[in-house]
Amino acid sequence: MVHLFLANGFEEIEAITTLDILRRAGIEVQTISISGSRTVTGAHGVSVKADDIYRRSDIMNSDCIILPGGMPGSENLRNHPGVCQAVKAQAARGGYIAAICAAPGLVLGSNGLLEGKKATTYPGFEKPEHLANYTHRGVETDEMLITAKSPAFTLEFALKIVEALKGIDAVNQVKNGLCI
Predict the structure, then answer these.
(1) Tens of pLDDT along 43-91?
(2) In sequence order, what are the residues at sequence separation of 6 or more whose Cβ sits closer than 8 angstroms to the Cβ of residue 64?
(3) Does residue 101 have an active-site annotation?
(4) Which of 17, 69, 104, 176 has its CA 20 to 30 A from that of 10?
(5) How far apart are CA 40 and CA 15, in angstroms?
(6) With contact defined as beta carbons under 8 Å apart, do 53 and 38 qualify?
(7) What is the maximum span of the chain, computed from C-alpha positions, in angstroms?
(8) Which listed residue (64, 84, 101, 179) is catalytic?
(9) Nearest partner of 171 among 24, 50, 47, judged by Cα
């Protein structure tokens, strides 16, 4: 099971496109609202209904935790103690974490999860105290960490997650279905 966290102010393209691509690949994804309500409103006023509301026990065995960016969505993710605990636990057990846009810097960097790792994040969110090797590429991978720079790289980001979880054949199947 993959868990995609939604916070008010999330970047709609990053969350919805990633969700769509993973489900096309046959990956079970559960959207988790951290707002206290299943309805979550994105940075550009698009409201979506999450599959569930955050509960710690539901995400302890996640195959991948996904953090869309957007503002103030990334700040809301960073400020949620449960999200911080979840990503730290996921990293400690060697599980996949995927973050895009401002989320790599704000959430992962702020929680010490980028130290010594190759990563990318939205320009301006690279902080020296993260001790990351920021590559400034569109999408970057380092072991179990997948990061992406901005909404423009969402499709590539989502396909990289599919590749990590199901392999290149699944990526090619999705790409063929999309006529890429």
Answers:
(1) 999 999 999 999 865 677 899 999 999 999 999 999 999 999 999 999 9
(2) 2, 3, 95, 96, 97, 98, 161, 164, 165
(3) yes
(4) 176
(5) 11
(6) yes
(7) 42
(8) 101
(9) 24
